[in-house]
Design brief:
lipid metabolism, EC 2.7.8.8, mainly alpha, 9 helices, transmembrane helix
C-alpha cells in the first residue's frame, strides 16, 4: 500500500514493500513453485500414513486388516496426488513462469515423493507381509531410492532431445513400484520386479513427456487409480480385483513402453544404415 507523506507530498513505501522489492527474483515463489511444494507435502504425508497406519499398528500387535488397508490406500493416494502436482507444475511453468529455483525445488520434491515415499513403502511391506524378508526388502528399497537419486541427478546435468525423458520418469517408477507391492505376488517375483523398475529408471530408454493429449490421459489414469484404491479401501464388491487389475495394467505399461521404445530405436538405426548404403 502506498501512502503520501504529509511533509514532502511524496509517495511513501511501506517497510514490507521495501523488503519484498529487495528480495532477489530467485527467492520469490511462483504458482508453479507452490504446486511443487504441494508435491513435497504429499510425499511426506505418504510416509506419515505408512508409518502410523501400517507399521506402528503392526509393531504394537494392534494391526487390523481394515485399518492397514485404509492407511496403505491413503499413502498410495497421496503419492498419486504428488504425481498430479508434479504434472501440473510443469504445465503451469510452461504457460506462466517458474522462479530460478524452480528446477531445484522440483528435484527435491520428487526425491521425497517418488524416491523416499515408495522406498519406505517397500521397507514397511518387508516388515508386515507374511512371506517377505525385512532385510532383503530394505536392500531393494535402497536400490529404488538410489535409482531415483541418480536419475534426478542425471536429469539435471544432461540434455536429451525435446519431448522425451531418458529413463523411466520417477513418478511413473514410483507408482509402478507401489503397484508391484499391491499386486501381492510371491516375495521373489515382487523383489525382482522392484529391482527391474529401479533399473529402468536408471536406463537410457526414452519415455515420452506427458504433454497435450498424453498429459490428459495421464491425469485420467491417475484418477482411475485413485478410484480403484477407494473401492479397495471401502471393501466394495470386486474392489480387490479392481485394484489388482489396475496394478497389473500399470506394470504392463511399464514393461511395454521400453519394448516399443527399443523397437523404434532399432528400426531407426536400420533405416539410417539403409539410407547410408543407398547413398554410397
Amino acid at each position: 500500500m502506498t501512502v503520501i507523506d504529509p511533509d514532502t507530498q511524496a509517495p511513501w513505501v511501506t517497510e514490507l514493500e521495501e523488503e519484498v522489492d529487495d528480495l532477489p527474483l530467485s527467492t520469490r515463489l511462483s504458482i508453479a513453485d507452490t504446486l511443487t511444494l504441494g508435491n513435497a507435502i504429499c510425499g511426506f504425508m505418504a510416509v506419515y500414513f505408512t508409518t502410523t497406519g501400517v507399521l506402528v499398528p503392526h509393531l504394537m500387535g494392534t494391526a487390523d486388516g481394515g485399518m492397514a488397508r485404509h492407511n496403505a490406500a491413503t499413502a498410495v493416494t497421496l503419492m498419486l496426488m504428488a504425481s498430479v502436482f508434479d504434472l501440473l507444475d510443469g504445465l503451469v511453468a510452461r504457460k506462466l513462469r517458474s522462479s530460478a529455483m524452480g528446477a531445484e525445488l522440483d528435484n527435491l520434491s520428487d526425491l521425497i515423493s517418488f524416491g523416499l515415499a515408495p522406498a519406505y513403502f517397500v521397507v514397511v511391506w518387508g516388515l508386515v507381509a507374511d512371506d517377505a524378508h525385512g532385510r532383503v526388502s530394505a536392500v531393494a528399497a535402497v536400490v529404488v531410492l538410489l535409482a531415483v537419486v541418480l536419475r534426478l541427478a542425471r536429469f539435471s546435468c544432461t540434455t536429451v532431445r525435446d519431448g522425451v525423458f531418458q529413463g523411466m520418469p520417477s513418478p511413473f517408477g514410483a507408482m509402478t513400484v507401489v503397484s508391484v507391492v499391491l499386486l501381492e505376488l510371491p516375495f521373489i517375483p515382487t523383489l525382482l520386479a522392484i529391482v527391474g523398475v529401479a533399473w529402468l529408471m536408471m536406463s537410457r530408454v526414452e519415455y515420452p513427456k506427458p504433454r497435450g493429449r498424453l498429459a490428459l490421459i495421464t491425469l485420467a489414469w491417475i484418477f482411475i487409480s485413485m478410484g480403484c484404491l477407494a473401492a479397495w479401501t471401502l471393501d466394495v464388491p470386486g474392489g480387490h480385483l479392481l485394484l489388482q487389475t489396475g496394478a497389473a495394467l500399470q506394470i504392463v505399461a511399464a514393461a511395454v513402453i521400453p519394448l516399443f521404445a527399443t523397437t523404434r530405436r532399432v528400426n531407426t538405426f536400420r533405416n539410417n544404415r539403409r539410407e547410408a548404403r543407398a547413398e554410397q
